[in-house]
């Protein structure tokens, strides 16, 4: 037995789940166990990692490992395709499926891509609706105890909201599948209070290897800037780093999005803004214009982070800070998808969020408990608003305080724009020698200014590039001073003879040339 949200669920699946195995064939090859579909094939062949993900989810349900599963796959890995495959297998076994999503426009998108979808509220075997409309006992009765509940972008499922509690109550006995690229809510918490099992369907390295996403080039300032500050003007950054390319600009407010779109257009780069105030018709026209190549840039506030499939987008300008790894990864993930003629994506990070959350294509460790995304999880205080009228604290987003109804929209100060040079970020030993040499010189100068040892320089260099600096990087004075420092440390702390000799040799790869004996 297991407890979830005050409800008790049994680990033993209903007997009718045996019907689900009719859609599966078990094969053993050595120690490998594969689950294959013998129902009609879906409209598009599965990629290998998608087939494995679907098999792992079905196997966990079949074997009673878990009832509520969270499937984690990076942007571009095909979460919806896996959901379509699982839906098809359920239909083949005579089961029903209920799909929930958090935005109206995603209802139409999912309805087009999932098999067997019918009109919500009817007896159709597959239905799609929004979470905000709420779950009903009628939906649960239609599904039956053997039905499957699929929740798209399931990190939008905080357990303390009414519609989340309704979902848990009405679908207490059904099997759940949550889909997300970022298993972490806006408050920084993981999803362990909603799901009891995680399946990681792919990692960024898998996607790069299979050419499902493209490598990513990142430009950012030397340090993370304060909220509202930017290293340079977004339009200037576009003209310098990604001229003529298609992509997205992420900003803080609706007024900034509208103003910046006008500035881009006036500069000869046709642009449009998409915000919470944008009508469905204008949003559709903008995305169609972008897809056709007419519109080059879309400025936005929180609207181009999820459910946006525009593979031709080749850059993202981050003109705002991202306090959470989840929103950061969702934003940069919009431009990683592979497309014909697209060999690389570019992130122009004007605020330094990458320095807090890591390179976009770096593999992450995911968890349902503690920090949902590691590295990159941040303070749970980020993303919260405190009402100035009554003190109620709530997640950012509502225009009025849920406690007293006081309006929470505040006038934002114009962002301060710094004139800072952006630098390209590299990863480990793949960094070009010229960049390594430049970083060594920076570390060396910093150590000199602050009175730190050459040993600190070596340690920091190894963290970045996985190996010590070339021996020719050290000057005679560097070595002489370090040897004297080690001897002073040994003397002050009463270390045994030979301490300075051994530490020096370990650091530089040879004994002190002026000290042939251990002293």
**Rg (C-alpha, Å):** 27 Å
Query: Uncertain runs with pLDDT below 50, 5 residues or more?
Result: 1-42, 376-387, 389-395
CATH topology of the largest domain: Rossmann fold
Number of strands: 21
Name of the CATH superfamily of the largest domain = P-loop containing nucleotide triphosphate hydrolases
State the distance separating the first and last CA atoms. Answer: 66 Å
Mean pLDDT: 79
Note the main sheet: 7 strands, mixed
**What is the CATH architecture term of the largest domain?**
3-Layer(aba) Sandwich
Strand order of the largest sheet: 13-14-12-15-16-11-21
Please, how many domains? 3
Structural class, by secondary structure, is alpha/beta
CATH class call of the largest domain: Alpha Beta
Structure annotation, total helices: 15
What is the overall silhouette? globular
Helix content: 25-40%
Tell me the β content: 15-25%
Structural summary, described in words:
The protein is of the alpha/beta class and 519 residues long. It folds into three domains: 206 residues, Rossmann fold, CATH 3.40.50.300; 147 residues, Rossmann fold; 81 residues, no CATH class. Helix content is 32%, strand content 17%. The protein contains 15 helices and 21 strands. The strands form six sheets. Strands 13-14-12-15-16-11-21 form a seven-stranded mixed β-sheet, with helices on both faces. The protein has a six-stranded parallel β-sheet with strand order 7-6-8-9-5-10, covered by helices on one side. The chain has a two-stranded antiparallel sheet with strand order 1-2. Helix 1 crosses helix 2 and helix 12 runs antiparallel to helix 13. It is globular, with a radius of gyration of 27 Å. The N terminus is likely disordered.
């Amino acid at each position: 037995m297991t407890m979830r949200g005050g409800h008790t669920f049994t680990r033993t699946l209903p007997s009718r789940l045996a019907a689900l195995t009719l859609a599966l064939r078990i094969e053993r090859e050595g120690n490998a166990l594969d689950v294959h579909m013998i129902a009609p094939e879906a409209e598009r062949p599965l990629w290998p990692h998608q087939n494995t993900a679907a098999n792992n989810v079905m196997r966990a349900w079949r074997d009673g490992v878990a009832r509520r599963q969270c499937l984690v796959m990076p942007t571009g890995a095909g979460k919806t395709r896996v959901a379509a495959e699982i839906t098809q297998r359920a239909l083949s076994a005579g089961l029903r499926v209920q799909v929930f999503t958090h935005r109206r426009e995603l209802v139409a998108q999912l309805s087009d891509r999932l098999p067997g979808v019918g009109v919500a509220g009817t007896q159709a075997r597959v239905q799609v609706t929004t979470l905000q409309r709420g779950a009903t006992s009628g939906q649960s009765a239609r599904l039956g105890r053997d039905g499957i509940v699929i929740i798209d972008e399931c990190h939008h499922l905080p357990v303390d909201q009414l519609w989340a509690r309704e979902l848990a109550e009405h679908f207490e006995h059904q099997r759940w599948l949550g889909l997300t690229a970022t298993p972490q809510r806006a408050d920084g918490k993981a999803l362990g209070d909603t799901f009891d099992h995680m399946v990681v369907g792919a990692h960024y390295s898998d996607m790069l290897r299979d050419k499902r996403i493209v490598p990513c080039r990142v430009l950012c300032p030397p340090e993370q800037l304060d909220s509202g500050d930017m290293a340079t003007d977004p339009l200037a950054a576009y003209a310098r780093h990604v001229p003529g390319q298609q992509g997205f600009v992420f900003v803080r407010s609706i007024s900034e999005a509208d103003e910046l779109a006008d500035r881009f257009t006036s500069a000869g780069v046709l642009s449009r803004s998409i915000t919470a105030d944008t009508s469905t018709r204008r949003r559709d026209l903008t995305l169609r214009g972008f897809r056709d190549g007419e519109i080059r840039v879309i400025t936005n506030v929180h609207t181009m982070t999820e459910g946006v499939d525009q593979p031709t987008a080749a850059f993202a300008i981050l003109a705002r800070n991202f306090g959470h790894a989840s929103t950061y990864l969702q934003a940069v993930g919009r431009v990683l998808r592979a497309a014909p003629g697209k060999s690389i994506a570019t992130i122009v990070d004007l605020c330094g969020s990458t320095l807090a959350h890591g390179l976009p294509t770096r593999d992450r460790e995911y968890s349902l408990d503690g920090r949902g995304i590691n590295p990159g999880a941040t303070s749970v205080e980020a993303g919260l608003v405190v009402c100035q009228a009554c003190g109620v604290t709530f997640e950012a987003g509502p225009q009025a305080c849920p406690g007293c109804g006081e309006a929470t929209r505040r006038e934002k100060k114009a962002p301060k724009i710094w004139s800072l040079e952006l630098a390209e970020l590299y990863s480990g030993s793949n960094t070009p020698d010229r960049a390594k040499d430049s970083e060594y010189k920076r570390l060396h100068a910093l150590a000199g200014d602050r009175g730190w040892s050459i040993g600190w320089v070596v340690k920091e260099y190894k963290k970045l590039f996985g190996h010590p600096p070339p021996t020719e990087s050290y000057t005679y004075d560097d070595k002489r001073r370090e040897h004297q420092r080690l001897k002073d440390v040994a003397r002050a702390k009463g270390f045994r003879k030979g301490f300075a000799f051994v530490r020096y040799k370990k650091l530089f790869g040879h004994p002190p040339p002026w000290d042939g004996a251990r002293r």
